[in-house]
What does this fold into?
Amino acid sequence: MRVGHIGCRWGDKTRWYPWPVQHQRIIHHASRMAIVTLVCRISGYIRDKALFWVLGAGDLYDMYRTANRIPNAFRGLFAEGTLHAAFVPSLSQALATKEGRSEARDLLRGLVATMLLVVGGVVALGIVFSPWLVRLYAEGFSGTPGKLETTVLMNRLMFSYLLLITLAAIFQAVLNSHERFLLSASTPIFFNLTVAATALFLVPRVGRPEIVLSFAVLVGGLLQFLVQLPAVRKLGFRVSPVWRQISSPGVRQVLLLMLPGIPVLGINQINQLISNRFASFVGEGGVSYTYGAYRVTELMFGLVVVQLTTVLLPVLSRELVDSPKTAPDTLLRTISIVGFVTLPAATAMAFFSRPIIGLLFGGGQFDSQDVSITAATLTAYAFSLVGTGHVKVMAGAFFAQKNTKLPMWGSLIALVVFTIGSWAVVDRLGTPGLGWANTASMACFAVFLTLLYRQRYGFGTERVAGVYPSLARQIVGSAVLAAILWLARPLVDDVDATNLWNAIRVGAALGVSGLAYLSVVTVLGGKEMNLIRGAIASRSAR
It folds into this structure.
């Protein structure tokens, strides 16, 4: 096996870590997937921008977001989350032999039958119990005449989306098992553009926009399902359900593999429920403001944390198995690199929240007041990115140690802290209170995982001491970044709309402050940029 190396300076020593050079097709798929992922994120932004432009942060957007959130809560349990993770290994194992192809076909048709039965039942129950579900998620809507009832109507119309996206996830698993990644990864684009086009071209022209938006969700889900159907059939699979296969060993195995992932996903969905419930009591726009701010932090998490950990965590997992003595160095180095990016990103979101929100979402019905309130909410959410990034790394370290229970307990602690914090401050602070509660909960989660990992597996005193200079450099660099952005605020405080001139002004301020941050950290002796470049180059060479 060919092996490449990357030199990593840590403290006073330079260590060389092996990075295997193999499986060129993985990199081929990864590079193409990166492009598709970027296009998906752009289409997601277009969808959000269109909805904010047409609806603003008003009652209709609050209702749409809540009605859509409820079936999506079950989506993580039945679709891309646990189902995909459980079905792909089972299907790939069956496809590994020529004799297993018939078994794979039966497994697919049996799983389709099972999901039609199970998820169809959930959809039916969701439609029946929609008034109670909506009240659970948004009891505060009852203070506005007709708002709760309209949300129930929209939720009932949207609930069938859950079944469509579950079938789409099954098809995605089939395509991925045959290394056909691009089509399945691109399906969100069809959904996003359908909703965006409906918002821009139909909603302003109809008398019942809530119904049109609800059907747009169904059409988008149907497209996600249909665009994959020809490709699945071309691979030799029939997709009609076979009811007798429901009790087959293969289907039972998939269902059993789904079970361990449900608790963590369930905790995440409870967190969304609590956030939406508290936001509904803030008044008109409460859910909309919270969603807008959270989407920006979510975008940064996807662009920064997920990309970095995709490169770094597999190396950590390998070293925990192959070279446990050097694994603590790799873990601490990974923590430092993630902090090197998340701390300045969070600082920028906190100190430049108004021009960022104004540039991304401002204009149309999303007026200056909406920009200001959403920006204040983003300021509160901003530093949760640091905690979330740290949690992502530490949870990966626990998983590499085959310990999945402690991260789950940590997520429970975070949920409790978030709930108590929201209860304590939302009445006084409004939607920014949700952001501060979320930031506090992620900080507690990060501290919990770090202390327990140190107690159980250890970092080494000398190794931990090497982190402090790195952290100090990042704090000083972020302080310089914050000062530059603060001085630039008067030049961009009037950014309330998406246009080229505003993009140039905001981009220039962020670019200058970002370069200042990198310069300060480098002058003070930071090597994180070299580590990131080396990790990416090594991954590209494989």
Observations:
- The radius of gyration is 24 Å.
- Strands lie at 2-10, 13-21.
- Residues 1-24 have pLDDT under 50 and may be disordered.
- The first helix runs from residue 24 to 55.
